[in-house]
């Protein structure tokens, strides 16, 4: 079979890889001048750094297997995570059950209740039973208002910005349930994985492997539409130059772009399907990345439970991996997940830097702006679909109403939190669906 694939991120490349390994031809088109999509990298101190912080959990078996299959297993390291919470003007360690028990801003009863509820969620297998309730309603009832506001609310805000109250309890359950798998035993410390050449290297290697198998991967090539003839997807129109477009014929087409991009590339779809595409709200990620000459904090991951700070997370990459990867620089992400209407999304890099940097002294009283050697600004659109209540009923099928046309994007990942692991799994799944529909066994 010959399959056209839109998008050279985790899902598109994994789909191409699966097809190519089975002797089919895939042609991937990526509009950006690099592969990896949301997990792509840029240069810092001679090393490769993700535009948005990335790590793996031990439960991310599809990514781990892929990294090994690509011959990069020796680069994957598992490192004890250092998680913190910024509350009441200081950093609290939040990595182990013991850290929770010694977290004095909450009463001992609140701490015990919080521990019991977390344990209950870790042991619950069927998280879909929480579908009808928001995480904020469910948690307020179980752990109480104070514990919710101090511990859970910052975590939800850290992921969903101003939409945090809409998030389904099933999503939060998925996050907690799967994270246990990142510890051998409940009392053991969590370990996070990182491929020491970056996620960008993994996806570049995947692209090379797809080509070695006789398929091809095109960067800087935007798809402008899907060709549909006689009610069936027959090919793609791709931009090959400033004003040049070319039609390519395929037996099937797989699209991995966000739902709002997909609707622009295809003819109108039946209401019942297209509503699932237009109903989804995405948040963007806005990242300010600092290169410092010394550490900011002792934590890798820090949720900010203080509304006076204009960012919701501080992720210090060089408290997970060695700074020698970035020419000796200490690397810190300051992060937010705003909607496109939010002023944070619209700010120019200098304006954002000015807004953020004045608050860093709260995190480390010794901080001085002279520590900053350079900073970078990145925006990732469609970084996070909002996962509201009863989300399972709103997921578009991989098989679209147009025969031969398939959709595989992050809105279809549920109840797990979206991530490279699940995009790889989705890419493999969509490739199998294409072959199954063509009557080809996998
Ligand atoms: C800030 C942030 C932090 C994250 N942290 C983690 C983490 O710690 N661990 C983890 O595993 N995951 C993490 N993720 C999530 C992970 O990066 C994504 O879930 C995954 O990479 C999505 O892959 P994808 O292929 O589904 O989509 P994408 O990566 O979005 O790929 C879609 C591709 O389609 C391309 N495209 C769009 N329109 C067109 C067109 N018309 N023609 C051609 N190409 C087009 C885009 O350029 C893009 O490359 C994070 C994401 C963000 C934003």
What does this protein look like?
The protein has three domains: 2-74 and 197-280 and 387-437, FAD/NAD(P)-binding domain (3-Layer(bba) Sandwich), CATH 3.50.50; 95-191, Guanine Nucleotide Dissociation Inhibitor, domain 1, CATH 1.10.405; 282-385, Polyamine Oxidase, Chain A, domain 2 (Alpha-Beta Complex), CATH 3.90.660. It is built from 14 helices and 19 strands. The model has no long low-confidence stretch (mean pLDDT 95). The strands form five sheets. Strands 7-6-15-16-17-14-18 form a seven-stranded mixed beta sheet, sandwiched between helices. The chain has a five-stranded parallel beta sheet with strand order 9-2-1-13-19. A hairpin with a 2-residue loop joins strand 10 and strand 11 (232-239). It is α/β, with parallel strands linked by helices. It binds flavin-adenine dinucleotide (FAD). Flavin-adenine dinucleotide (FAD) is lined by residues 6-12, 29-32, 37-39, 52-56, 222-223, 256-257, 261, 285, 380, 383, 409-410, 418-421, 423.
């Amino acid at each position: 079979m010959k399959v056209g694939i839109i998008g050279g991120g985790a899902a598109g490349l994994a789909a191409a890889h699966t097809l190519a390994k089975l002797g089919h031809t895939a042609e991937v088109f990526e509009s950006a001048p690099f592969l990896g999509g949301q997990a792509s990298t840029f240069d810092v101190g001679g090393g490769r750094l993700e535009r948005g912080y990335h790590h793996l959990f031990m439960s991310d078996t599809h990514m781990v297997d892929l990294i090994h299959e690509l011959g990069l297993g020796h680069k994957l390291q598992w490192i004890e995570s250092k998680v913190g919470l910024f509350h009441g003007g200081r950093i609290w360690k939040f990595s182990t059950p013991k850290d929770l028990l010694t977290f004095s801003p909450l009463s001992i009863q609140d701490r015990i209740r919080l521990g019991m509820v977390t344990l209950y969620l870790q042991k619950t297998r069927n998280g879909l039973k929480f579908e009808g309730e928001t995480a904020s309603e469910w948690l307020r009832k179980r752990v109480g208002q104070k514990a919710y506001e101090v511990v859970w609310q910052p975590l939800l805000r850290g992921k969903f910005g101003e939409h945090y109250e809409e998030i389904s309890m099933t999503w939060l359950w998925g996050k907690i349930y799967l994270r246990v798998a990142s510890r051998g035993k409940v009392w053991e410390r969590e370990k996070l994985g990182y491929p020491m050449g970056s996620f960008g290297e993994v996806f570049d290697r995947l692209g090379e492997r797809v080509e070695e198998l006789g398929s091809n991967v095109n960067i800087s090539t935007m798809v402008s539409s899907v060709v549909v003839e006689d009610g069936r997807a027959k090919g793609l129109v791709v931009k090959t130059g400033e004003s040049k477009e070319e039609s390519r014929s395929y037996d099937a087409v797989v699209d991995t772009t966000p739902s709002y991009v997909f609707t622009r590339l295809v003819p109108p779809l039946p209401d019942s399907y297209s509503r699932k595409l237009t109903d989804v709200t995405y948040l963007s990620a806005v990242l300010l990345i600092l290169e410092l000459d010394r550490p900011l904090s002792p934590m890798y991951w820090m949720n900010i439970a203080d509304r006076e700070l204009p960012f919701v997370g501080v992720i210090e990459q060089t408290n997970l991996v060695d700074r020698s990867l970035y020419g000796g620089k200490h690397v810190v992400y300051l992060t937010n997940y705003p909607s496109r209407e939010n002023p944070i999304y619209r700010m120019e890099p200098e304006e954002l830097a000015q807004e953020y940097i004045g608050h860093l002294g709260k995190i480390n009283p010794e901080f001085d702006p002279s520590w900053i050697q350079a900073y970078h600004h990145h925006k990732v659109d469609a970084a996070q679909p909002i996962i509201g209540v009863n989300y399972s009923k709103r997921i578009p099928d991989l098989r679209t109403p147009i025969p031969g046309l398939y959709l595989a994007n992050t809105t279809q990942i549920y109840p797990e939190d979206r991530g490279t692991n699940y995009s790889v799994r989705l890419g493999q799944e969509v490739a199998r669906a294409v072959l199954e529909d063509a009557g080809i066994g996998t």
